[in-house]
UniProtKB/TrEMBL annotation:
Pathway: Metabolic intermediate biosynthesis; chorismate biosynthesis; chorismate from D-erythrose 4-phosphate and phosphoenolpyruvate: step 6/7. This is 3-phosphoshikimate 1-carboxyvinyltransferase. GO terms for biological process: amino acid biosynthetic process; aromatic amino acid family biosynthetic process; chorismate biosynthetic process. The active site is at 323 (proton acceptor). The keyword Cytoplasm applies. SUPFAM superfamilies: EPT/RTPC-like (SSF55205). Phosphoenolpyruvate binds at residues 29, 105, 133, 181, 354, 395, 420. It is an enzyme of class 2 (transferase). It comes from the Bacteria. Belongs to the EPSP synthase family.
């Protein structure tokens, strides 16, 4: 599935006829990494069933092991890997340790508030691109809580922390306008601070609201008391999470390109076990696909999406669900009328500057895209093949795959970047519509 030795990229499958697919998608990155954190500070061992095994979740597990958590795989494994058994240590971070954050926002923003419970020196670094991601809010809020953070004045990776098992916690004012993960990370570990934590946000609107709701729900499910009754304030009372025995839902943001496929190529795609209630931002794909004119049925089998390959553009604010933007932009580029995507300025601080990356790559294929302050304006035009660069961004590769269903000769540079959240992507995408896919 890797790019061929002399090939500039992975040839994206072209859909010569309507699709007919029935697929299962591995577990949610965001849920897996929240459960791993909570299980690591729980009062008893946990079992995380159907976890996502991908670069971001393996980095999270590795980080927690370095802080003394025991994480083992069960002997029996499902189609997407084994379950995880998690045993919390007596003390988090009993020895100095180094944490590799890779390019995972959840690792770089969730682990430091946990490392705050350790007096050891914990160092953090990641990929080159990770050093460009916003981190100063985490760093400043840890300092406000009394943690010593050495960052060379950069406000970014790399840095070290040195805290205390009896960190006091309490009120913290922060600007989480660049990422909801600043709030989630502090809430998850904050239950173990002496006063819990009471976060007030001051600044531009916090993006990715559903991801904060996912955090508060996960905390409540683990028995903790959370107050999110006021806008821009989230508080967790001090307490120890119960051990978990949870099954991770399929990752709906990773399912997004697969359901988009039914719309753009025409035909039907069934995603097994799509939850009827969830905090996952990816669930918003249902209403987005309806705006584009797809037919949807959600029942016990899962989500079935049917499309005709013909659909209009849309005008949509993606502030709450920014991670869906690359796939939505790909759909918009194949629509019959213009689209406007707004509310996503914060995507400039994601794996790459996603607004510039999408504008550059779509334009290279003949697309008409204007980057605005708040997002993208996309006017459909005839697209041609070429190499779509992915900038170490799994969702750029997924967007390219959606385009490739309708654009012959499209090659995806470094399709392996999808391993960040879905290592099985090339394999699953290739079977998406067999035997309907023709190249
Ligand atoms: O907490 C999480 O699991 C995530 C929160 C969001 O981050 P931002 O708020 O930085 O967009 C989302 O885009 C990311 O993929 C996962
Ligand atoms: C923004 C994303 O990831 P991260 O968790 O690294 O922020 C994403 O997966 O789209």
């Amino acid at each position: 599935m890797a790019d061929g030795p002399s090939s500039p990229g992975w040839p994206a499958p072209y859909a010569g006829q309507p699709l007919e697919a029935d697929l299962s998608i591995p577990g949610s990155k965001s849920l897996t990494n929240r459960y791993l954190i909570l299980a690591s500070i729980a009062d008893e061992p946990s079992r995380i069933r159907l976890p996502l095994h991908s670069r971001d979740t393996e980095l999270m597990a590795a980080a927690l092991r370095r802080l003394g958590v025991e994480i083992n795989e069960t002997d029996e494994a499902g189609p997407f890997g084994a379950d995880w058994l998690v045993k919390p240590p007596a003390r988090i971070g009993a020895a100095d340790a180094h944490i590799d954050c890779g390019l995972a926002g959840t690792v770089m923003r969730f682990i430091p508030p946990l490392a705050a419970l350790s007096p050891s020196t914990i160092s953090f670094d990641g990929d080159d691109a990770a050093r460009r991601r916003p981190m100063s809010t985490t760093i400043d809020s840890l300092r406000a809580l009394g943690v010593r953070v050495e960052d060379g004045g950069r406000g970014a990776l790399p840095f070290t922390t040195s805290g205390s098992p009896t960190i006091r916690g309490g009120c913290v004012t922060m600007d989480a306008g660049a990422s909801s993960q600043f709030v989630s990370g502090l809430l998850l570990a904050g239950c173990r601070y002496e006063l819990g934590v009471d976060i007030r946000h001051v600044g531009d609107a916090v993006p990715s609201g559903p991801h904060i709701e996912m955090t508060t729900e996960a905390l409540r499910d683990a028995g903790l008391v959370v107050d999110d009754s006021e806008p821009n304030r989230w508080a967790v009372e001090p307490g120890v999470p119960r051990g978990l025995d949870v099954a991770v839902e399929p990752d709906l943001s990773n399912a997004a390109p697969f359901v988009a496929a039914a719309l753009v190529a025409g035909g039907t795609v069934l995603i097994r076990d799509w939850p009827t209630w969830t905090t996952q931002a990816g669930d918003r794909m249902r209403s987005i696909l309806e705006m584009f004119g797809a037919d949807l049925t959600l029942d016990r089998a899962g989500l079935t999406v049917t499309g005709s390959g013909e659909f209009p553009g849309i005008d949509i604010d993606l502030h709450d669900v920014g991670e869906l933007t690359p796939v939505v932009a790909a759909i918009a580029a194949l629509a019959s009328s213009p689209s406007r995507l707004t509310g996503i300025a914060h995507l400039r601080g994601h794996e790459t500057d996603r607004l510039t990356a999408l504008t550059t790559e779509l334009t290279k294929l003949g697309g008409r895209v204007t980057e605005t302050d708040a997002g993208l304006d996309i006017t459909p035009s005839a697209l041609h093949g070429g190499v779509f660069e992915t900038y170490h961004d799994h969702r750029m590769a997924m967007a390219a795959a959606v385009l490739g269903l309708r654009v012959p000769g499209l090659q995806i540079a470094d399709v392996a970047t999808t391993a960040k959240t879905l290592p099985e992507f090339p394999e699953l995408w290739s079977t998406l519509a067999q035997p309907a896919l023709a190249r």
